[in-house]
Amino acid sequence: MVREQELAFAREQAAMSNTRLFGDSLNKREALRLISYGSMLLCDLTSIQAGFAIASHWRGAYWLQLYGFPVSVLFCVIYSMLALSSGSVTRDAFGSRLRSAMLGERTLLMASALCIAILFFQPHGLTLSRLSLLTAIVLSALFIGAGRIIFLTLFLHNRDEFWTSRIVLLDGAPPPADPGLTTLDAQAEGISPERNDPDVVARLGSVLADHDKVVVICNDAERASAWSLMLKAFDIQAEVVMPSDLPIGAIGIGRMGDRPTLIVNRGQLSVASRIKKRLVDILVSALALLLLAPLLLVVAIAIKLDSPGPVLFRQSRVGYGNRPFRIYKFRSLRHEATDSNGNKSVSVGDSRVTRVGAFIRKTSIDELPQLFNVLLGDMSLVGPRPHALGSRAGEKLFWEIDPNYWQRHALKPGITGLAQIRGFRGETQEQEDLTQRLNSDIEYLEGWTLWRDFRIMIGTVRVLIHHKAF
Question: Which residues form a coiled coil (predicted)?
């Protein structure tokens, strides 16, 4: 049975592509949102330039005529950084027109304070005209407020449809009356809340990949409870139309038409958070690959000289949204003894480990090729460590030990994670070995911040060489 699941899982992988810049982090609708964010920011920056340009042509504005353009550029740079970090050009700015205008004015006020502080440290001999600068700021504020109101009026008539792509899964229930909803017969597509079947989990992940929200309609109370637990494993807003109230860990109440729903998941990260995390991944992994290139070359040569076989070991792992991907590692085992399915973990004194393999495993150098996985978007620098489909703790497969196992894949897998810096790594001989890691993974998912990622990366340096690495 496990072998059939592995083959199905591999087939699912073969049909997938993960080479986009942002990997699976952004769907098409989210890409359109990013374009809207950029358009609003461009509108704001144009307003600032217009304010400075008009102010510089007023009588007596000699200071702006001389220095207006470089000062306006400084304003734009500071405004852009503040707008992106404070949420002034994110989803919050696309609701109420008045609120959007107020967000823009608030950001301009902060940018003005910073810019004026910088100008006070100007070189001697440069006279600052406070009246001219104040005129430019006031005009910029008026243009930003008016520009945002006009922008939202012209381009966002259907904000609800623009922000949310919703799919309705029908599990033995008739379709809703609304003909405009995207519906899918779960049973006809071979989709169910069966968490013991990796093929089904991966198939559901593929279905949900291009949507922001899923609503499941079923008429069976037990199935509804199973769906609520299943949907917690995906980075998506999820609701279940309940036949009756059940204690299933719902986090809120929603509605679909005239029918109430229980919200069981809101997704892990906002679009802005995913972009920040992805940008850090790209910058750090690219820099690390550049700096570590000589070491990678030396290790590759050593592996080739030590034993016959390829330099890299490739294996299918469970990734983001429970969708499979192919991980890269330096080969540390004899080629003829490698386990592509991960059914047998490497243990202390394992005869399959080569001489070079023992060293690179002890020092965690064997993990360095995963920087390419990060660059491609399959992985993140920090996240739950990806497991092979056939991984076991004792005699049981990982997902058979804890029903919450699939929830750890609601974020991208990482090269390092919270569990690793706590010392939960190495061989999983007992079920407790997995439970400790799983608890840390879920804790990380529920409390993600970019600063926490940095702390984990710093903490990883201390545990690169570890007594549990072999």
Answer: none
Q: Delimit the domains of the chain by residue range.
A: 28-156, 165-266, 271-462
Q: pLDDT at residue 41 above 50?
A: yes
Residues 265-318 pLDDT 10s: 767 677 778 888 999 999 999 999 999 999 999 999 999 998 888 999 999 999
Q: Within 10 Å of residue 76's Cβ, how many Cβ atoms?
A: 20
DSSP-assigned letter for residue 311: S
Q: What is the pTM of this model?
A: 0.61
Q: Which two tokens stand for residue 431?
A: 């079920």
What angle (nearest 5°) sits at the alpha carbon of residue 196, between those of residues 327 and 184? 90
Among 269, 256, 277, CA closest to 178: 256
DSSP result, 206-250: HHHTT-SEEEEEES-HHHHHHHHHHGGGSSSEEEEE-SS---S--
How many C-beta atoms surround the C-beta of residue 465 within 10 A? 9
Q: What is the DSSP letter of 385?
A: P
428-446 mean pLDDT: 86
d(CA 155, CA 6): 47
Angle at 383 (CA atoms; ends 378, 386), nearest 5 degrees: 60
Q: 154 in the Ramachandran plot: left (φ > 0), alpha (ψ -120 to 50) or beta?
A: alpha
Quote the tokens at residue 466: 């570890």
Which tens digit of pLDDT belongs to each residue from 101-110? 999 999 999 9
Q: 161 is written with which tokens?
A: 């449809």
Integer-rounded Cα radius of gyration of the chain: 27
Answer yes or no: are the C-beta atoms of 448 and 280 closer than 8 Å: no
Tell me the mean pLDDT in the region 405-427.
88
Please name every residue paired with 314 in a beta bridge, in sequence order, or none if there are none: 328
